[in-house]
Design brief:
Elements (H helix, E strand, L loop, with lengths): L5 H22 L3 H22 L3 H7 L10 E10 L2 E7 L5 E2 L2 E3 L6 H13 L1 E13 L12 E13 L7 E8 L13 H12 L6 E2 L1
Helix pairs in contact: 1-2
């Protein structure tokens, strides 16, 4: 197993400190403790700013609106295979490619969320047929992230539609597995696409986790 980078370690510390602060602000009643927890939250933001050179305004926005007991965020990605090729979309934000997907909205089931994301980002209609993997992003070689994220990777069946770009994507295409474009590695990895294709070829494989 590779050793975490200095940046990844600092992010992990900042996430933990911010989670402790958020939990304390949620459950504590003592005014002095509440002030200490507010200071802890500011400390987490300060680490991002001073140690990782993230602008102060951006650091403050990462956890804005996060209240209640701190838990990981949930992201879905959908793998649609056709004739040995995989459906990918290109993100406007970084110009790289990924499986369609995004955050799970409140009141969405994971399966509905991934079907909606595929339609919105690619123009294709699909049906979720298997949860192939539940991935803790921290345990895989993604770039470091401020948030702790669980990624739900679904196999999906193509139902219809046509390639259509969106506000978040500027290109849609199917790619051979041995000729993938540059991937948005914060969203998906080559190894994960390869593993999803194994699930596609062997539907009886158990769901991967962690």
């Amino acid at each position: 197993m590779s050793t975490p980078s200095h940046s990844a370690t600092l992010l992990a510390w900042a996430r933990k400190v911010r989670a402790i602060a958020q939990d304390g602000l949620t459950f504590s009643k003592d005014p002095y403790d509440l002030e200490r927890y507010r200071q802890l939250a500011e400390l987490a933001e300060s680490v991002l700013h001073t140690e990782l050179a993230i602008p102060q305004e951006s650091a403050a926005q990462f956890w804005k609106g996060e209240y209640g007991y701190a838990t990981p965020k949930v992201e879905v990605r959908g793998a649609v295979f056709a004739d040995g090729r995989v459906l990918l979309v290109r993100e406007r934000s970084d110009g790289r490619w990924t499986l369609p997907g995004g955050w799970v909205d409140v009141n969405d089931s994971p399966a509905h969320a991934v079907e909606r994301e595929i339609l919105e980002e690619s123009g294709f209609r699909a049906r979720a047929v298997k949860l192939a993997a539940l991935v803790d992003k921290n345990r895989h070689p993604h770039p470091p992230s401020v948030h702790h994220i669980y990624k739900l990777l679904f196999l999906c069946e193509l139902l219809g539609g046509s390639a259509t770009v969106s506000q978040e994507t500027d290109a849609v295409d199917f790619f051979a597995l041995d000729a993938l474009p540059e991937l948005s590695r914060g969203r998906i990895l080559e190894s994960q696409i390869a593993r999803l294709y194994q699930h596609h070829e062997q539907p009886g494989l158990p769901t991967d986790f962690d």
